Amino acid sequence: MPQVPHGWRMELTDKLAEYMQSRFWEEVFTGQRTIPDISIPVPLVCHADRMIHVIGQAYRHQVTVQGIRHGKTRDIAASLGYDELTGPTALLDGDGNIMLWYLPGALDPMHQVINSGYVNVAAYLNASQENVWESLNLLRAPLQESFRKTRNHGWRNDRILFCENADLVGSIDLSPGWYQQGHGPPNFHPEVSRLLKSGRERNGARQWVNEMSEFHALLSGTLAIIHPRIVSIMVNRATPYHTDVNGREPWLDMLVTVGDYPPLDFVVPTLNLRFRYNPGTVIAMSGSALEHGVGHTNGNRACLAYYMRHNVQQLVGVQLCPPSNLKDLEPLVNVSS
């Protein structure tokens, strides 16, 4: 694998991912003591350690799901009778394949102060819930533009699903490369999202991506642990039950919810389960296999969704990964204390 040039943002992502994976092995499998690279800011290490701790809790609380229900449902009232999970959990099928990671409390709460040994620092810029939420003000213009779209653009921008009295609403997609609508393979090639193209710097999208680079490094480190990415941002919107059609069942999509809102559930009718969806929760799941949805709520809420598209992977010739299995999380060699 070629070296990432020194000083690039991707270098921080690689070093943080390497640290988080080794630190997870240390916590779960009693590996050797892991020391973070000196280039990783101390506050970011603290956020990574918090994430690793929650992933470790989920790994130790494994639930094998039996009798998975297939097909779609529109019976929202039935979800009230589903079992509700509130603690970190890894949901598996009968073969040990991981269907869903539930990681409540994975992100630092608003205004939380981190005590990091010799240094007391406020929640790290771009990694606390509050700063993730505040960063969305950079996207105010494109979010408002998306909210003005008509229902002809599908349910993702349907005005009836949004909290119209909220200060910030909308749903946008950001990607370094995907096929534009109606311009798929084999006659066309992927392009950068419209909002990120040259000449659109004033819409705030590029600045948002730049300022959130450390936060995305944290999420990339999380994926390095739970599964070997495009960004979708939804603000103050309910999500009807659906499955995602452009991915593949083995892939884990990542959802991050932030904001300040009353109790809310993330519902998975396929499993007859609902998950307490408090701010700071991270869920990684097979969005193509599991029907899911989120209801209306008062307050302010944003969901950042990270996923990949099958046709882009095919174009670049990347080998499609198999389902994530518990064995994939184990160290490549046996470790001892």
Structure in words:
The protein is an alpha+beta fold and 337 residues long. Helix content is 25%, strand content 21%. It has helices at 9-29, 42-60, 129-135, 140-147, 205-211, 213-226, 310-316, and strands spanning 62-64, 83-85, 89-92, 98-103, 113-116, 119-122, 170-174, 230-235, 239-242, 253-260, 265-268, 273-276, 282-285, 292-294, 300-307. The protein has an 8-stranded mixed β-sheet with strand order 1-3-4-13-10-15-8-7. A hairpin with a 5-residue loop joins strand 3 (89-92) and strand 4 (98-103). Helix 1 crosses helix 2 (42-60). The model is unreliable at 111-126 (pLDDT under 50).
Give the proportion of residues in helices. Answer: 10-25%
Q: Which residues form runs of ≥5 with pLDDT under 50?
A: 111-126
Mean pLDDT: 79
Radius of gyration: 20 Å
